[in-house]
C-alpha cells in the first residue's frame, strides 16, 4: 500500500514549477511586493508571458486585444488573478511531458478544464466573489490522478476499472487498492509546491467536502463540478449525475439537483474555447494518436 506523500515524492523530480511562478508567489508573500516586480518576473519567461497575454486578450476576459504588455496585464487583471493564471499555465507545463500508461492525456486535460468551468459557474450562481480562483482550483483538482497514473499505473487502472464495474466511488476503490486517493495525492503535491492553503484544503476535501474545514463550501462546489465533468466525459445525463450525489451536498450549497443541467450546459459552451487557450496543442496530439 502507498501513501500520498510517497507517490508525490516519487514524482516531484519530474514535475516542478518554473522559477517565474515561484518568484510571483514570493512577491505576493512579501510586504514589498508590487505589480512592477511581478510583471518583471513574468517577462523573464517568454513562454509564460506569451500564454498570459493570450489568455488576457481572449474573448473570455473581455479586453479585446487591448492588453499589449505584461505590466498592463498585471494592472488590469490584478496580482491575485495573474498569480492563479500563471499557476494554471505552470502546472499544465510541468506535466506536459507526462505520458502515463492507461491515461488519455487530451481527454484528461479537457476534463480538467470542464471541472474548472463547472466550478466557476457554480460559484457564480452562488454569488461568490473571486470565482476565477475557483476555476483554477477546479481545473487543477484532478492532478492527483496524473501522479497516480505516472507512479502506480497498474494499481490506478485497477481501481478505476473496479469502480466502473461495481459503481463503487472511485476514491474509495483507490484507498482500498492503492492506499490513498487522488484527492489526497493532489493535496500532497500542492502542499509540497507551497500553493495557497485554499488550494490544498479544497482539493484534499473534494471527495468528502465536510472535511474541508474553512473551505467546506468551496470543496462542495468542486465536488459537484467533478461529478459534472465525469458525466460529460461518460455521456451520462445530468439528471443521473445529480441523483448519484450525496443529498447533503445540495443542502450545504442550497442548490437544487435540477440546476446541474444548466451549470453543465453553460460550462460546455466555453469548453472548446478554454481548452484551446490553455492547451493549444491538444488537437495536434489527437491527430498523432
Automatic annotation (TrEMBL):
<dbReference type="InterPro" id="IPR013976">
    <property type="entry name" value="HDOD"/>
</dbReference>
<protein>
    <submittedName>
        <fullName>HDOD domain-containing protein</fullName>
    </submittedName>
</protein>
<dbReference type="InterPro" id="IPR052340">
    <property type="entry name" value="RNase_Y/CdgJ"/>
</dbReference>
<dbReference type="Pfam" id="PF08668">
    <property type="entry name" value="HDOD"/>
</dbReference>
<feature type="domain" description="HDOD">
    <location>
        <begin position="14"/>
        <end position="209"/>
    </location>
</feature>
Amino acid at each position: 500500500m502507498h501513501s500520498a506523500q510517497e507517490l508525490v515524492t516519487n514524482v516531484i523530480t519530474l514535475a516542478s514549477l518554473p522559477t517565474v511562478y515561484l518568484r510571483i508567489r514570493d512577491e505576493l508573500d512579501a510586504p514589498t511586493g508590487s505589480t512592477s516586480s511581478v510583471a518583471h518576473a513574468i517577462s523573464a519567461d517568454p513562454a509564460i508571458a506569451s500564454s498570459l497575454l493570450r489568455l488576457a486578450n481572449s474573448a473570455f476576459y473581455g479586453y479585446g486585444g487591448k492588453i499589449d504588455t505584461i505590466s498592463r496585464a498585471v494592472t488590469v487583471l490584478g496580482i491575485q488573478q495573474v498569480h492563479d493564471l500563471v499557476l494554471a499555465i505552470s502546472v499544465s507545463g510541468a506535466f506536459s511531458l507526462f505520458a502515463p500508461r492507461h491515461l488519455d492525456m487530451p481527454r484528461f486535460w479537457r476534463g480538467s478544464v470542464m471541472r474548472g468551468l463547472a466550478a466557476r459557474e457554480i460559484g457564480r450562481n452562488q454569488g461568490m466573489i473571486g470565482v476565477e480562483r475557483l476555476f483554477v482550483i477546479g481545473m487543477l483538482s484532478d492532478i492527483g490522478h496524473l501522479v497516480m497514473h505516472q507512479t502506480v499505473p497498474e494499481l490506478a487502472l485497477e481501481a478505476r476499472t473496479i469502480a466502473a464495474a461495481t459503481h463503487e466511488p472511485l476514491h474509495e476503490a483507490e484507498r482500498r487498492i492503492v492506499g490513498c486517493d487522488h484527492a489526497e495525492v493532489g493535496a500532497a503535491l500542492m502542499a509540497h509546491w507551497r500553493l495557497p492553503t485554499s488550494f490544498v484544503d479544497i482539493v484534499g476535501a473534494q471527495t468528502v467536502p465536510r472535511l474541508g474545514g474553512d473551505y467546506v463550501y468551496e470543496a462542495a462546489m468542486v465536488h459537484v463540478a467533478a461529478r459534472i465533468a465525469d458525466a460529460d466525459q461518460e455521456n451520462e445525463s445530468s439528471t443521473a449525475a445529480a441523483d448519484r450525489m450525496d443529498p447533503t451536498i445540495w443542502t450545504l450549497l442550497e442548490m437544487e439537483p435540477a440546476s446541474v443541467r444548466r451549470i453543465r450546459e453553460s460550462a460546455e459552451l466555453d469548453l472548446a474555447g478554454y481548452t484551446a487557450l490553455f492547451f493549444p496543442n491538444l488537437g495536434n496530439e489527437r491527430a498523432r494518436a
